[in-house]
């Protein structure tokens, strides 16, 4: 019953946002389930990928997967990407895991604040199609995903670069031109 309610809630949110971007409703629904499927596959791959020694953040956008966070060993980073690629529906995987100890609670709080600032600035800028761009911040690094044209990507990047505290911007866009 809970799964049915979750599916209905996801469908309602997705339908309400359907007019806010160029992706189909089907793509949006697929992404709602693809991210958790990939995260589950990664965490089941090795005990250290689901333990406090690793922090794994998985994001899906239009079948593209971003794996960010931290893990203690490079072989775990490689294993996470391998597991993500094997999940049905995954088109491409960006493995941005860092081989280091997990970010502190303070760093994660700062990341949330940065993401909020960036999204607010994007909403205020008419040159940025904020509904077509997903913003993920991990350890001060801002990842941008979306289906945009090059001028929209450049405008979004400029907004991110103007926000104080951003360490680096990584563009993972799919370009329409």
UniProtKB/TrEMBL annotation:
PANTHER family: BON DOMAIN-CONTAINING PROTEIN, OUTER MEMBRANE LIPOPROTEIN DOLP. Keywords: Signal. The keyword Signal applies. Residues 30-101, 110-177 form the BON domain. This is BON domain-containing protein. Transmembrane segments: none annotated. Residues 1-18 form the signal peptide. Pfam families: BON.
